[in-house]
Design a protein that fits this description.
Helix content is 39%, strand content 16%. By secondary structure, the protein is of the alpha+beta class. Strands 1, 2, 3, 4 and 5 form a 5-stranded antiparallel sheet that branches. Strand 1 (30-37) and strand 2 form a beta hairpin.
């Protein structure tokens, strides 16, 4: 039987289980998954002090523990994050924008890894974790993500 988390308490319990499975886990102040393409990196969702279950699920797949860092995500990585997060959909009391975004990014990169888009760049996925807003950006993906934080009133 597939796991389901139909209540907010179930979501909180799932979050604790994922957090306990990562020794030294520190929740990021902000995080997101992005699509890298011809126009740079786009982030369908920007999480600032929110989405902690999604953060720890994504961290589980990336191997992230704490601090500010970016990670390349393969289609398999993103599919695993979607699989791990999917039981949350049973809770209809909250929205699941990260899961929706991950599926959208996955649809864009599935079967295209290693091939170039019409713009001449490979479409791929990236995860960004910001440990603290005062931390310097880890790279250009993080810098783009931080710019979105600024525009959303961070």
């Amino acid at each position: 039987m597939t796991a389901r988390w139909p209540t907010k308490d179930d979501l909180a319990s799932a979050r604790r289980r994922f957090e306990e499975a990562i020794p030294g886990w520190e929740a990021p102040v902000a995080f997101g998954a992005g699509l890298v393409g011809g126009d740079g990196t786009s982030f369908p969702t920007v999480n600032l002090r929110s989405g902690y279950l999604s953060a720890v699920v994504l961290a589980t797949v990336c191997g992230h523990v704490s601090g500010t860092r970016t990670y390349a995500l393969s289609a398999d990585d993103l599919a695993e994050a979607v699989r791990l997060m999917s039981p949350a959909e049973a809770c209809t009391d909250v929205r699941h924008p990260n899961l929706t975004a991950w599926r959208s990014i996955l649809a864009e990169i599935e079967g295209t890894e290693g091939t170039e888009s019409a713009e001449g760049t490979e479409r791929r996925a990236v995860a960004v974790f910001v440990g603290g807003l005062a931390d310097p950006p880890a790279d250009e993906h993080d810098a783009r993500f931080r710019a979105l934080l600024d525009t959303e009133g961070a």
